[in-house]
Amino acid sequence: MNPAMDQQTSKRPLSPQWDPWDPWHTRSTKGRYELTSVEFTVTHLCNLRCEHCAVGEMLTEVEAEPIPVEQLIRRLEEVDTLQTLSITGGEPVFNPKTVREIIRPLLRYARERGLYTQLNTNLTLPLSRYEGWVEDVDVLHISYNYRDASDFHRIAFARHKRDVSPAAAEKLFVQMVENAKTLSKAGVFVSAETFLSPFTVPHIESIHRDVASMGCLRHEIHPLYPSDFARDMELISLDEYRDAVRRLLKARVPDVWILFGTLPFYPCSSREEDVELWRDLHREEGVTVRHDPDGRNRLNVNIFTGDIIVTDFGDIPPLGNIRRDRLSDAFDRWLGHPVARRLHCYCPAARCTGPNVIVADTYYPETDFQKRKARISL
């Protein structure tokens, strides 16, 4: 294992000035993309079936046998450039065995190596499920797209095979909110993500206030990805998206970091309002635009099949398999892929590394980003 000394206390604190998941840092300093982040899909079990789930059809009732965690760690050891480690699912905390045999060993390894960590969870399970290990997580990431328990009931069980009573849904919703408050008070960095959809856009100000009231240090704003369960959901227009961003900026709670992920606006746009929004977001204190990690500095690994992929909810075929391939080799293979070459444009003066694959295909299917140039400098 890399330096056995515990480096947890020496890591630079997360802030709008330092987001180690953002590939901008490597691209702008090294002149190329490097594999600094690995995400493991550690389960396909989940107690929810959310309408917006981008991996919903992968969810199952019975889990397959995972690759031993020792083998996963050996592959991580081969990546000299590694800075961050993410854990996703399904609901990673659903099965105590997954926590005991996969999550806790990975977090121990990350702590000893000095890596930043994120765990994606719905936070609806008993608080005791997180005790004894959550302090090793740098970011506890939740999805929050609700006004109240009624919204949660409709959204979180939209694709469930069994009827779930409003009372049962309310219990989970209240538990999620109370867990977020308790963990935030205990010093855990809780980051809540909201997808901008026809439902959330009219309520984005109140959703933001709720995120702040739970003690979340960061509110992430993303497009709704038309993938898997969400493939037939209605998408908002770019005009609606831009308006929602403007309204959120006016209503924001100053102490909450707002992170716009996979933002569908770029400094090379022919529309002046898009360029102006890009400029304003980069001037706003406590607001950041995160460049897409998927394929720019991160790969996802399915710990059951071993497949190494660009993202857990994309359609690009596997780049290799962790049983036989080095992660860095798979990453280099991706950098030469036609899709990567089409989208990996780079405008240092405007601080832009190009669009997300799904966002580009959804909103800009005819656009060749390699032929566009930024219209501003920051």
From TrEMBL:
Region (Disordered): 1-22
Cited SUPFAM superfamilies: Radical SAM enzymes (SSF102114)
InterPro entries with a match to the protein in the record: Aldolase_TIM, rSAM, rSAM_sf, rSAM_YfkAB, YfkB
Alphabetized Gene3D superfamilies for the sequence: Aldolase class I (3.20.20.70)
TM stretches of this protein: none
NCBIfam families reported for this sequence: rSAM_YfkAB
CDD domains per record: Radical_SAM
Keyword flag Iron: yes
Any coiled-coil regions, as ranges: none
Residue span(s) of domain Radical SAM core: 30-259
Keyword Metal-binding: yes
Pfam families per UniProt: Radical_SAM, YfkB
Name under which the protein is recorded: Radical SAM/CxCxxxxC motif protein YfkAB
GO molecular function: 4 iron, 4 sulfur cluster binding; catalytic activity; metal ion binding
Biased composition (Polar residues): 1-12
Swiss-Prot/TrEMBL keywords: 4Fe-4S, Iron, Iron-sulfur, Metal-binding, S-adenosyl-L-methionine
Tree of life domain: Bacteria
